[in-house]
Design goal:
alpha+beta; 4 helices; globular
Length: 107
Amino acid sequence: MSSSSTPQQAGLCWFQADQWEQLKAVAEDADRLEATWAEWEAKSLEMIDVFATRGILIEKVWVDVQALIDWCAARDKPVNASTRAEYVTALMMEQKKQLPNPSMRAH
């Protein structure tokens, strides 16, 4: 299988409905976020579908808002779209490290 037939993957912050107001309260870009979690979810699901038509698989990465806040604070960064994306990338990289490497199995 060539790499051109392997779908691209990307991560997307996925929030719980009960944490939406907390995110909006701390986000530097709160004015650019949807007013409600339901609006955000609908827009995000639509975006996932659009990317799928382009051969890009989007992985929902569950984000705890307090953990995001703590992560940003430890790095002296604001909570905004850029740092949310950076955080998701860090979470995905950490998940990959924890997966067993099939090439390392004993024969």
